[in-house]
Amino acid sequence: MKKSIFVNTGWTSGLTKQVSKRHLLAATFLVIFAEINFAQQLPEAKPYTLVKKASTDHRSPGDNKLEAMQLVGWGNSYGYGGFVDDKSVHFNNEAGHYFLCFRNSVQYFNERGDLIKNRRYPASEQPQIVSKSGKYIVISNRETRETRMEIFDGTVVWRREIPRLVMGNIKTRPGKITDDGNLILEIGYYHRDDSGGAAHKTLFIDTSGAATELGGVRADELMRPGMSQGGISDSGKYYVSIHRERLAKGLTRKPKCRRSVRPGNRKGNVEPYLCKFFGSISVC
Amino acid sequence: MWSHTSASFLAPYPFVNNDGQVIAICGRNSGEREAYMCFFDSFGQIVRSYPRERLFFMSPDGKVLLTSKNKVRTFFDASTGEKFGHSENFLLIRSFSDSGAVGVKNNQLYTIRQNGELLFHNQEIEEGYLLELVSRDGNSFLAVNRKKKMTMLYTKSDF
Asked: Which fold has domain A81-241?
């Protein structure tokens, strides 16, 4: 009698099919062969060399907790840190240099993976945003809730408190530093000399520390807390603002469909947003 | 000077490059809920749109977009909105260098060049490690094991 085995094909409505062992082996072989073949047919690039396998298991100064890498920056291009490429005009960095952002430090490495600079902060301070060049760092203090920006080049060469502002909640995307050091920040804040009342605003802060509200956008027009808005070009010259105005009456009700049409929105809210502005912020 | 548009935005994070080109997921008309990838001109008019494309990456120079739709990766010219290359090989894309999108399949590193051609690096990413960052010139990359808090640096330079 011919030997056979049973395979539950699952997705085919739970039916159990009888498949010969020979067929199964042939199919497995074909899949493996296809995978190998897939790679072998492709043009091959110059190989990489493992330069360093480094532990990122650091401890904060005065703190026994282990530091964790954190997400900073804007967009996927530099995640929790970044490579500084040779096109960067700042910081005298060389090709292959990179930095990583930790809970209480920003660490800079050379092309061999050696730690060359380390900007450490007390446990109460956290680096929030690092520019692509690694030169500008925005730091917030959890205890005082103050925010400052600094230039770090082995030593802190420039340090500036962001004026009149106290950092409230930092949004999903905390902001962006343009290549020339201007800062665009979306924050919940209040003026120190005001009696109270928090607002969410998008601010453009130039290298002198002067803050400008983007395009005169009124706080009540801005997106709800927790939602970032718009996009900013790397140069900081162009800014897109999306307002929460609903487009049609029917959309003011909670939609029946709970599935998101907006990628990344886990709450399943399908309200569309009206883009009120986009254009240059240079005239702000 | 602000431009305005009446397009409905269905995703909160539009791409903006240094030439002011804006690409976003939109309904093409007021109130429309079907998602299109829309290319805008500087006056806020939609000049080109593609249904159900998912914005994925913008190249480091902002000139090229990579999108995903039904596991197909497609490159678009950010200024004209024209397609100019695609790959049907499903890679986990993690970064974008000047030469193309860099991703992983079966723990192996690949680059999808902007013409859609796939480049095999013959470089295995160790189990437990994720490709995290690729340098802009494509000569270095970082792989990170978040559990073990380890980082590996690979480079093509000779030392």
From this structure: Methylamine Dehydrogenase; Chain H (2.130.10)
